[in-house]
Amino acid sequence: MDVNTLNREQIKADRPDFHAGDTLDVYLKIVEGNKERIQVFSGVVIQVKGTGVGKSFTVRKISNGIGVEKIFPLNSPFIDKIVRVKEGKVRQARIYYFRERRGKSARIAEAKKGKA
Questions:
Q1: Are 32 and 25 within 8 A, CB to CB?
Q2: Beta strand pairing status for 35-49 and 56-63?
Q3: Do 18 and 26 contact (CB within 8 A), yes or no?
Q4: Cβ neighbours of residue 14 closer than 8 Å, sequence gap 6 or more
Q5: Which of 17, 21, 70, 75 has minimal Cβ neighbours within 10 Å of its Cβ?
Q6: pTM for this one?
Q7: What is the CA radius of gyration of the chain?
Q8: Residue whose C-alpha is closest to residue 26's, from 85, 110, 66
């Protein structure tokens, strides 16, 4: 077996396709002692980075008036599922300018669906 074959085996196929500006719900498996529970982290994708097994993404949300960002490896075994809630329309692949935005300027336009 070569490295590429091993990498292809580790990539999770059930992950949705998403980009910067999309709003996601990331369901995380949290282990506390001998109990396991699911915790949801909802927010806007700031960036998607890397390829293959090393691909990761950053999600930002505002919690009690404070900005919280989490970086998730896409193929992490701790991620139960990822749900794309809303598809955002942005012009850049990394929307770091979103960190300074407050109020109405922090809204992201929703991408229009094409005719099917």
A1: no
A2: antiparallel
A3: no
A4: 81
A5: 17
A6: 0.83
A7: 16
A8: 85
